[in-house]
Amino acid sequence: MIYLLAGIVVALVLAFLFSKRSTSGDEEQTQVADDCCGAHEVCETDSLLSSSDKAEYYEDEELDAFKEKTADSYNDDEIEQFREILFTLKEREVAGWLKSLQIRQINPPEIIREEALMIVADRRGL
C-alpha cells in the first residue's frame, strides 16, 4: 500500500515538473530594437506610413528641388543623387527617409524606391 502511495506522489511531482517546463517554453521571446521606444505593439520606426506631417531631413535638403517630379522622369545624375543619400543612411533610417520623402511630396526614382524597400524588408526579416 505504501508503494502505491509513493508511486502516486512521484507521478504527481513529475507531472507538475513537466507541465511547468512546457508552459515556460511556450512564451514567445521578442527582441526590441535599440531605437524603438517600446510603447507600441508595432515599432513605428519601421513603418512606412506617415503618422505626422513634420518632415525629418537626413542631410538631403537638395532633394527638395525634386518636389512633385514623377518617378520615371529622372536622369542618371539625379538618380545618383538619391543613391548617394540612400547609401549614407543606416538601415534603421531608410523607412524614416521614405516617410520623409512622402511628406515632402518627393517621388524617388523607381530603382531607388525598390532598393530602399528591399532594405526595409530585409530589416524586417520578410
Search tags:
single chain, mainly alpha, 126 residues, rod-shaped
The separation of the N and C termini measures 61 Å
As for the number of domains, it is: 1
Low-confidence stretches: none
Radius of gyration (Å): 26 Å
Walk me through the structure:
With 126 residues, this protein is mainly α. It has one domain (35-124). 49% of the residues lie in helices and 0% in strands. It is built from four helices and no strands. The protein is rod-shaped.
What's the layout of helices and strands?
Elements: H1 2-25, H2 76-88, H3 94-103, H4 110-124
Summarize this entry quickly.
The protein is an all-alpha fold and 126 residues long. It has helices at 2-25, 76-88, 94-103, 110-124.
